[in-house]
């Protein structure tokens, strides 16, 4: 009888041994083939498979059909799939090499928007500057759960649903009887050490009796209800099986729409128990011990100026005249005193990156005990702060800056409208209400105007584009969407915050200390060339300058003020700009015409500001303060820039969703509008009496065949010569709205012009 073959002990099998086998192979190997080449028996195949799965998940190897291969041998590229609403997609490469990869719908396989994927390039194929490829494998799902809208019944008992994100173009079949059953008991707070009292304190809730939702009768679910579902197996190319996790509500409810957007963008909605536990241990007020090493500024007449509904007050200001000009003090909440690095609150804040603001709710970066309580510069209570004192000459030029940890007491909680009416408008009743701080505010207004003038002189770009404000009635229904009112009180605080942000960045840079800069690169060269090319054809500007400075662009903006082209110029210039980001290297801020800029003034709601506070404290000699290592700053900046984009995208989506719900009752009405954007398949317009937008497709312009003239940003009828261009005022009819596609579809009533007028 022959000797039995000895097998290697699976318990000591390491991933590098599996990789060694794959490197030695001339082709991808199945799990069984890897097991055999390692000298293991069939009973150890599970251990081999687990290691192969781990290697696939971290992107070291790729699974192609039944085989596993090395990424470098298979010439694959790893990236994140971003699907556009048209159905085409691009893979954003993780290696940051060359251009994004174009993926046609037929080459997507079973990948979804947001998935981490591996891509094989298609030889010789490209879409413009983008190489074309096909998805080989999904390495990691971008979404494990998502909201879905009930479309209708399917089969005897099932429901057909569609994801609320229009970029997820497939259906999901769920069985109401298989829905996850909620537990009918008091809600646990994740950490067993955190009970109701601690939870209440950490979240600022007076009386929490919240329990998990009662057992919901899913037989009553109907078309238009929103469910939270977890996808399961693929049934066919455009259909998946799923499981109901939760009933969210009716789709026309604003809070349900906010829940949809939060789920679509991965916005955190609950704090881990360890974070709540740390927050519950915070004191209610600063202690006398906290004051010992701080400058006492409680008698300085600091005030906060914010929106009427604001609850977290990061900053307070005080201004006075001096023999040589002005003295500005900007006190910022000292969050770093209470949140040490690598504690649960710090890690969660870093993960979130920033707070997320919605029309009816906020997902804060910190629990409310800190964001609305201990760190918020509430009136008439002691608070710890980091103060920046900046000396200006009489023309608003900064001359010197000093910084210190302080204790302050805000003397008034003011609103923008209140300050505007009292200081700028001279309303006597408002002046009487704030008479104690009125003289200080009048000095502040003078300094703010001087600083603003100096900033304009250096070329700071100011796009005074209106922001939308959603107005709800008492029932929570949207009744209007109008421009948010901005006045000089907003501008005053903005000028002081910019001055403080610059002063801190310059202070750290001069001392060769690390800093997380707020960097805004110059405009995209190709987009800028197109911008000037279009303006030249329209007679607004000449050739592009050899050196494009912010002053040069400021002049272009200024030349269009008050003219018909003002709208066009502003919008096109914004589209040529790159996004601002956080980086450890100082490249300046193009939009502000600032050579050295950081974010310092909002540590309650932006993690980047908290990091800058830590750098500042270490520079000032605080022996108890830790700060991020220099080598971590690049990845930290990239992460925070990414989370900022998530917040912006979520904000845009909720606005679009609530706008569509608001417009549902106005289908068939006509609106005055202005052409705001163009593409080869149609153009978008913005309504003038309500802050909403919609699209006019070329396919719906039935009186002629229309062509897009990209170099002139015009759409022209081939036979009639009728034209539409950016900034043109027209009258449109609202034909339909679609919450599923996030679209408002329009038709032209009147307003087309003869193209000869524009050439």
Description:
The chain has 759 residues and is of the alpha+beta class. The chain has 6 domains: 61 residues, Arc Repressor Mutant, subunit A (Orthogonal Bundle); 65 residues, Nucleic acid-binding proteins (OB fold (Dihydrolipoamide Acetyltransferase, E2P)), CATH 2.40.50.140; 118 residues, OB fold (Dihydrolipoamide Acetyltransferase, E2P) (Beta Barrel), CATH 2.40.50; 228 residues, no CATH class; 56 residues, no CATH class; 92 residues, Beta Barrel (OB fold (Dihydrolipoamide Acetyltransferase, E2P)), CATH 2.40.50. 28% of the residues lie in helices and 28% in strands. The protein contains 18 helices and 34 strands. The protein has a 5-stranded mixed β-barrel with strand order 3-4-5-7-6. Strands 8-9-10-12-11 form a 5-stranded mixed beta barrel. A 5-stranded mixed β-sheet has the order 13-20-19-16-15. β22 and β23 form a beta hairpin. α2 crosses α3 and α12 packs across α13. The longest helix is centred in the last third of the chain and has 31 residues. The termini are far apart. The N terminus is likely disordered.
